[in-house]
Write a structure and sequence with these properties.
homodimer; 150 residues; mainly alpha; Arc Repressor Mutant, subunit A; Diphtheria Toxin Repressor, domain 2; 2 domains; two-stranded antiparallel sheet; 7 helices; 67% helix; DNA-binding
DNA sequence: ACTCCAATGTAGCACAAGCTACCTTCCAGT
DNA sequence: ACTGGAAGGTAGCTTGTGCTACATTGGAGT
């Protein structure tokens, strides 16, 4: 096996590992903002219920997270009213969706079947750095140039 | 505003959402078990201190997580003593490392520079399904056949 | 205009993972 | 043999995300 222990597991304290709790909150924000964007485009409005179904969690969880997005000025809403994205929220949603699309299409171009590429892209998208994303985009472009997937 | 679409709309293909986030504890277990394995191979023994440096968190966080791994019989240890993997722990570590290696080498074969491939692989490895992993392995094999990683 | 119920909000619990502050243990060097 | 400092354990707080149970709201339909 081509890998030695110290090569890929540098003892650089912490840098290679995420700070789980902190990062996760940011990922969640992105996921929700992206979901709001999707739902608004599809349904016209986005309600707590829509989000709770989309994310597969209870409405309680959703409304707490929406409250945080409100604090962060990513969404605006009032009690019992639909949820809209602010300009900042739209920006974040667009960036997230772009990233997601690249990862998703990259997986397809790799030959991963669509039913697995979707969930995998959801999980992966938050963990690809700029260089990796760029390489993925190039790979997708290369494949689409020379024909269908692979 | 008449919302007549109160029934659930299934997610569109390609937007299937990530599962419950309680899988997260399992990811942590894998990361720690892999780290213990790495450290034992490198240093001979693995201490709480080594883990806290490796993971970039305080020793308190480490010892709480180690206690959980103990419950799950993935490691064995005693107070103030080094941490060893059980047979189950070794198994899990081996599986995790295999997965990690494939993702890491795949990123390299894509042309991602090593200093970014490491952290990205850490994040990505837990979100790669079997089909994706298989495709990645094939891609790596293909690249190593036709020459070095670009 | 009222009423009923789905949607939403609130209270309060669990648990993971982060921290600081403080206490205990072990062992290396005298 | 002693002891001081590093390693590790414990207490207790914070935040994030999940839940159930219960209270409130608003709008659809009578």
């Amino acid at each position: 096996m081509a890998r030695t222990w110290t090569q890929t597991r540098p003892n650089r304290p912490g840098r290679a590992f995420r700070k789980v709790r902190t990062d996760h909150a940011a990922e969640t924000a992105q996921d929700y903002v992206e979901a709001v964007s999707d739902i608004v485009h599809r349904n016209g409005v986005c309600r707590v219920k829509d989000l709770s179904e989309h994310m597969g969690v209870s409405h309680v969880t959703v409304s707490r997270i929406v409250a945080r997005l409100l604090d962060e000025q990513l969404v605006e809403t009032e009690p019992y009213r639909p949820i809209r994205l602010t300009a900042r929220g739209e920006q974040l949603a667009a960036a997230s969706r772009r990233r997601h699309d690249i990862v998703f299409r990259f997986l397809l171009s790799l030959g991963v079947p669509g039913h697995e590429a979707g969930p995998d892209a959801e999980g992966i998208e938050h963990h690809v750095g700029d260089a990796t994303l760029h390489r993925m985009a190039e790979h997708v472009a290369g494949c689409e140039e020379t024909g269908a997937a692979r």
